[in-house]
Amino acid sequence: ELPPSHLSAARAAAVAVGYLRYLRGGPGRGLELRALRRARRQDIDDVGHKYYLELELEDVLDTDRSVSCTAEVLYPLGSKATAPHVQVTVQGELRSTEQADQEFYNRIRSLETELVAENIPDSHGNVPPELEPIHLLAWLASGYVIWQNSTENTKFHLAQVKHVKQVKRSDEDLQFDYVVLLHEMVSQEVMPWEVTVLWHPQRGARVSRHGRQ
């Protein structure tokens, strides 16, 4: 059993939240950790370190309620190139974003020219309301990057969207090419990362490519 304030528990929780953000986030939902309730670590011989976590999450657009979640995060021994194995179970219902998703999709599809923006949030921490869905999609995309690139000794956090450009496609998906700044809290390094996310209101999101700039 680890105290919830334990640094390694907090790092494992960041991986679990990143993973869930990628799976269940979108332009109308941004999941973040409200509290880490319990944490336990198991050292499995010849396999790796496994963390069992009980989390409370909230949607940044709906902070009046929260959902509970259990997660298992396994850091495999050996290769740094292997992403942690994550399993997450959400208890309770997340607010529906169907209508907001469709409205955002229709708005972007109807633009005369492709959307381009930078510095979200700005130097004062402000996100213009019309760019909030773009920011939340960056959260989702960075959730994937955090999950894929975390080790037991790192803790990543999305600091800013440096640049985003919509790319017109021949299919139904929306495509956004991002350059995001990820802050690694342990080393205090800020890393620019290129990540492309495809999104559709029925199919959800997927990261098609990512790499450190």
From TrEMBL:
<keyword id="KW-0646">Protease inhibitor</keyword>
<protein>
    <submittedName>
        <fullName>LXN protein</fullName>
    </submittedName>
</protein>
<dbReference type="InterPro" id="IPR009684">
    <property type="entry name" value="Latexin"/>
</dbReference>
<dbReference type="GO" id="GO:0005615">
    <property type="term" value="C:extracellular space"/>
</dbReference>
<dbReference type="InterPro" id="IPR046350">
    <property type="entry name" value="Cystatin_sf"/>
</dbReference>
<comment type="similarity">
    <text>Belongs to the protease inhibitor I47 (latexin) family.</text>
</comment>
<feature type="domain" description="Cystatin LXN-type">
    <location>
        <begin position="116"/>
        <end position="213"/>
    </location>
</feature>
<keyword id="KW-0677">Repeat</keyword>
<feature type="domain" description="Cystatin LXN-type">
    <location>
        <begin position="1"/>
        <end position="99"/>
    </location>
</feature>
<dbReference type="InterPro" id="IPR049897">
    <property type="entry name" value="CYSTATIN_LXN"/>
</dbReference>
<dbReference type="GO" id="GO:0008191">
    <property type="term" value="F:metalloendopeptidase inhibitor activity"/>
</dbReference>
<dbReference type="Pfam" id="PF06907">
    <property type="entry name" value="LXN"/>
</dbReference>
